[in-house]
Amino acid sequence: MGYSCSAKASLTLKAIERREAYRADSFDQKYFIEIGKENKDGSITGTVWELFFDNNIQRRCKKKGGFKIDKEGRIVRFPTISKQVWECFFIEMKNAYEKTYAQIGYNF
Length: 108
What we know:
single chain, alpha+beta
C-alpha cells in the first residue's frame, strides 16, 4: 500500500523537489525531504534535512525542521524556503494541476 495525499499537495511537493537544492541527482543537493506519516486530510507532512560535509571529508545531515503542505497544495510551513517563495510553488502547482486534470473535467 502506498502513501496517500491529495493531488494538489503532491504536485506542490514535486515542484519543490525539482529545485536544484533538493534534487537527489544533483551535485549541489543541499537538502533532502523525509515524508512523515500519512494524513487523513490529504496533507503532506515531514522533515527537511540539511546535507553538509564535516571537515570536508564525510557528508552528514542536520535536521532543519518540519514541513506541511495542506490538501489544497499551499505550503503551511517549510523551514528552508521563504514565505515569499511559497506562492511561486502554489502557482506552479496550480498550472500543473490545470494542465493534468482539466482535460478530464476537474477544475481548480
